[in-house]
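Suppose you are handed a protein chain with no further information: no name, no annotation, nothing but its sequence. What can you learn? This example shows the usual starting point.
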Amino acid sequence: MSTPGTPASTATSGALAVRVGVDQRDVDVAFEVAPGETVAILGPNGAGKSTTLEVISGLLRPDSGHVVLDGRVLTGPRAWVAPHTRRIALLAQDPLLFPHLSVLDNVAFGPRSTGSGRRDARAIAGRWLGAVDAVDLAERRPAELSGGQAQRVAVARALAAEPRVLLLDEPMAALDIAVAPALRQLLRDVLVDQTTVLVTHHVLDALLLADRVVVIEDGRVVEDGPTGVVLSRPRSAFAARFAGLNLIAGTATGTTTATGVRRPDGTVVHGVPADPAPRPDAPAVAVFRPSAVAVHRVAPGGSPRNALPVTITELEPLGDLVRVRSHDLAADVTPAAVADLRLAPGLPVTFVVKASEVDVFAS
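A reasonable first move is to predict its three-dimensional structure. Written in structure tokens, the prediction is:
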């Protein structure tokens, strides 16, 4: 069902199966996208996210693997479908509008390329410009548009072609912080029932747009699951940082009622076991919020607390708070605490968190 005001697509939003093997970039990634589902691909720079989109769109031939859409092999050992005939649209940071065409004709380009006549294509373009609230821009040239306006037009152009799959490669990364929320809401409206793969570095994009999250690190999938689950119970270091959480990996220790995570150095971080509790000696992670962490110059006593020696690497302002970062952990404290403790990069301190604030999951 289309959102009110959004043109109904006659294209079939299809099931997508992807396996990407690119030897030179050390990428070996596999995942599936259900019809109408939006999947966000997360990961650090160089993890293989853009490589994956390039293979899906047909811009890059992999050394191995496949791309299958609605049962049709687009990329495979004995198959190759040209990018322009895949019914897959790619929208990146740069709108890449044709500078010599009006906005209306830019959006009409997609329908024209799939066989619609000029009048029908312009009618389709007009409907999509209405869907993205850009009808008043129809006669302008791209050089006359702001960044936010140009990206709205690019969304309309991509969807006017009725793609079976829409690929979004950080479409809001180049936008002003005041413009991005409006485009995010627009995408939330128009992506209903549209099979979509989204690459993003912004947690709000994943939370508001994605049904599922795939996390890629070092060219491999390390997490795959519903957005809410992955971002509230991360099992990889990147997903934890992305969600603004601390994560400590190791092996489970304890019982079903009192457990912890034994770090490689032998220290144990105590916490509350998830349901089901991780098995003793099995891989596990301890997850806790930076706001649950207190910073001490001298480690306090008390068995209910975890004391973690760290060295401060960065102080990051966060509105009314300051995020104190170490190499792999963070604590949120007040500016007054920063001043009282004389916190600064390079200073050794102790992060302290109550066991009751730590969740322990199997990894």
